[in-house]
Design goal:
Two copies of one chain form a homodimer. With about 425 residues, chain A is α+β, with helices and mostly antiparallel strands. Chain A has two domains: about 280 residues, Zn peptidases (Aminopeptidase); about 110 residues, Alpha-Beta Plaits, CATH 3.30.70.360. The first copy, chain A, has twelve helices and 16 strands. In chain A, strands 1, 2, 3, 4, 5, 6, 14, 15 and 16 form a nine-stranded mixed sheet that branches. In chain A, α1 crosses α12, α3 crosses α12 and α10 packs across α12. Chain A starts with 12 loop residues before the first helix and ends in an 8-residue tail after the last helix. Chains A and B meet through β8, α8, β9, β10 and β11 of A and β8, α8, β9, β10 and β11 of B.
Chain lengths: ~425, ~425
Amino acid sequence: MPDCPTCGFSINADRLWASLMELARIGATPAGGNARLALTALDGQGRDLLVRWMREAGLQVRVDAVGNIFGVRPGRSGSDAPVATGSHIDTQPTGGKFDGCYGVLAGLEVMRCLQERGIETEAPLALVIWTNEEGSRFVPVMMGSGVHCGVFPLETALAATDLAGLSVRDELQAIGYGGGEPIGSVQPRCYIEAHIEQGPVLEAGRQVVGVVTGSLGLRWYDVVVQGQEAHAGPTPMPLRRDALRGAARLIDQVLAIGHDPAFAPHGRATVGQVQVHPNSRNVIPGRVHFTVDLRHQETPVLDVMEQRLRALVDRPDAGLTVQLHEVQAFAPTPFDPALVARVRAHAAARGHAHQDIVTGAGHDAVYMARVVPTAMIFVPCKDGISHNEAEDADPAHLAAGADVLLDTLLQQAGVAGRQRP
Amino acid sequence: MPDCPTCGFSINADRLWASLMELARIGATPAGGNARLALTALDGQGRDLLVRWMREAGLQVRVDAVGNIFGVRPGRSGSDAPVATGSHIDTQPTGGKFDGCYGVLAGLEVMRCLQERGIETEAPLALVIWTNEEGSRFVPVMMGSGVHCGVFPLETALAATDLAGLSVRDELQAIGYGGGEPIGSVQPRCYIEAHIEQGPVLEAGRQVVGVVTGSLGLRWYDVVVQGQEAHAGPTPMPLRRDALRGAARLIDQVLAIGHDPAFAPHGRATVGQVQVHPNSRNVIPGRVHFTVDLRHQETPVLDVMEQRLRALVDRPDAGLTVQLHEVQAFAPTPFDPALVARVRAHAAARGHAHQDIVTGAGHDAVYMARVVPTAMIFVPCKDGISHNEAEDADPAHLAAGADVLLDTLLQQAGVAGRQRP
């Protein structure tokens, strides 16, 4: 791997990999994955390990009231807002070793490199571990970054309970991470997060780095097709009001919206959930409920996609009625174009095959983009599989992404003796 | 209602209706239906009422080892096999007042008419109440007629248990209907069963009587469409292997087999059950299971329909695999053409709007057709609804069907002073 043309060095790929594997021992599953749910004792052990590593790398650790951990590396200009990176170390119940952890440990690896080379930056740097990104145990998801960015109040987060009735407030205390730092007291000047892609695009295109330009907007709908339940044997075809026949045709047409080249490459239409009533082998379905998930990176295009959806449900098959309800919506979030351009330039300078990409999944960076200039760096994951114990990634790809992170952080923070941007 | 041109009289429509309503008090549900599951104490009460009515109508009651009740009315030719009618009085858990009960009480009404007019038939007549036709509490369904007709052994029926672990053997004893009559000791010479249609055909055609020509053959299949589960956000449309997209298209095409005019009017294709995995709003389905139910009254046509089905699953969409398994099959059962012709002629002679029809649902008559000449008489039910507390029927239609039953039974048995057929 070539050293960075601007920085003159690269991260230590072996150390990055070894740290990922060491963190993955905490909550390791027999199938090779990780189960380290937010604010469990295992999450506490993971945090303890990271805090030790942060301090060993010369970072000043501060924990805020929702358990977000900020490891700050002072810069020459002491009081400046830091250039930040980070992610999360909580996992899904049957999660993998890379989702979130990669972003945290790539950031740590950058800090370690700077420490061992004695490099001082102009602005401070910060490595952030956000609390409960996954939302598997407590909702809302992306809890720590959501509170930090003012998306919902601290009290909402602290009052959230898991299925056993345990609260975020109590579980933070139990693992020793209900910190004294006020929310927002560490406010980065910009934020760059490295992450595995969690999709198949980079692998399919034989790319090493994904330059993330923003996140897709999202709209969720419920659709109910109503017909007439009847016995399969005695009811001739022309007299049926088969809700499933109508639903099957609608589902195919809804998916066709996503496949329409007019909305490519970032248009998505998904039907994930179907419930058939009464769902009996010899009964013609009287009612079918299904969900629709539409995504695109531009609100006006999402509007057009939604119009297409509404037009479909407005002309049901004879004998059927169809109802559509919007249940949730998130606007598209573009990342900071200047910061994205720097990520792109560093990937190119390193000679890594790279492409622009959008994130369809939520990340702490999507909330951070609401308050400070933000970018993300994606690396491929094997077969595009994530939220799965089979999640895997190529050490060379992980190193490549961390190098681009190093370059971008240094350029943003400014290196002593060089011009800050 | 005109009297029968051959018999010179009609059944008592008011008495038939009153008896239906009196039986329906036993196990009546608040919503107006009936819950009188097989071999419960309520079924015992219903049987006791019917046995009393049978004896009052001059029938000699015999109960066999599986609880089938035979009420025999002697004929002039004492030892002849009887001409039989009947049905069942057990119901679904949320059943109606007419399914089964109508056939039993129409037969009883015929016996009452003959008694009050002092009419003697040449051959004996028999009214049969079959045990556990519904199969809601014990399987196999159509248990009493199945044992009688040798479809499965007596021991299979007696050993069957309900969800509480109670056996047919013990529950028969508990209600006093484990009879001493050997299976098959009363073997009718022919069998005619009256029943509500349980479908919408007669009502849609404004018909009063359905002349049932036989039962549809039935084939049940399981289909599994396998793709690749993936997150809805990060996975572009062209890289998806969406099992639900493939399943939705297949379901529409499978239903189109039923709608093909080549298989009309008796071809049926139903997809009643769909299971989507993992069935989560923002996950592209990796696997979909659905059932297929194909029906037709001719085996060669069912073969063609099955070929069409197999051809569909043999060319799955790209990225998907499809598996098909046949899980059960029943051959079509034609009823006795001569007996069916007599039912048709009597309906016509009574001046009732009538049409030929097939039964898509199972009935005791379908098993009886395996061993003796058999026919069925259908009458409309409201909106085609059955197996439902809302089940309803027009008293005039019920009377019309019972009149046709009267005529057909008398013609088959021969009336003293007339020529037996």
